[in-house]
Amino acid sequence: MTAVVHLRDVLPDLPAPEPPRAHVCVLASLNYPDISDADVALIKRFTKVALSTLYELGADFEFFDTSEALNNPSSAAYFDGLLLLGGGDVDNSCYGMSTPHPTTYGVDGRADRDAFAAIAAAAAADRPIFGICRGSQLLNVFRGGTLIGDIEDYALHHGAPGEPEFVDEPVDIIPGTRLAAILGTDRIIARNGHHQAVDKVGGGLVVAARALDGITEGIEDPKRFFLGVQWHPEDDDGPATDRMALFGAFVDAAEQARERSAAAVARAD
């Protein structure tokens, strides 16, 4: 795979927090098969905003780029939290679909398997996990859920051919969920540009947000911080308040996981 996005392209133009509140594992593929020039620009912008937001909230990070095979994806367990960003489509074989939809793009089954290994390790270590777009879909598939291969009536979710890919989409937040507590509202205007979405919800997960057409836009585990949103809060064309609320809740949870780990070590000593 020829790299078109480099790590240096997405690093924050800010000093790292010292000392950090939390040390986060950020996992994404900066490059994937058949990536378009438009998606290169989006990956650069969205990833830089996400990483800068972590710095602004007092967390630092290590970036796991699944464009190439990870040496040890299970080392995600040694961080205070796991953040999964967007990218190409999840390999349809991961959720039992024998034939990919003709619109499927950017598939890298090895990258998916590395991501699942990182999710498994972070979950086993009781670390908070937050997934965005592809990241949310990976969380659902990891729990045994499935995905819609392509949303036929897509007008709410992405632009038409020849139009801007991303649209401002109303999304209803389900009352009583962790997501509702984080965002403090029952509806947001989300930045969306997706053609796939959660179909069958994975084991132990509940729907936390829906589009106006009923498409699932958010999932969560009510018992732990295992949260996915289909939209892109890290799109800086969208509301900064929602981005800071979501990333802030994740960093808070990562800081709490860090404190639990430190307390466990102290007890062992």
Automatic annotation (TrEMBL):
GO molecular function: gamma-glutamyl-gamma-aminobutyrate hydrolase activity
Entry keyword annotation includes Hydrolase: yes
PANTHER family in the record: GLUTAMINE AMIDOTRANSFERASE PB2B2.05-RELATED
Record GO biological process: polyamine catabolic process
Pfam families (alphabetical): Peptidase_C26
Organism field: Mycolicibacterium frederiksbergense
Annotated keywords: Hydrolase
SUPFAM superfamilies: Class I glutamine amidotransferase-like (SSF52317)
Any one Gene Ontology cellular component term annotated for this protein: cytosol
Name used for this protein in its record: Gamma-glutamyl-gamma-aminobutyrate hydrolase family protein
Organism superkingdom: Bacteria
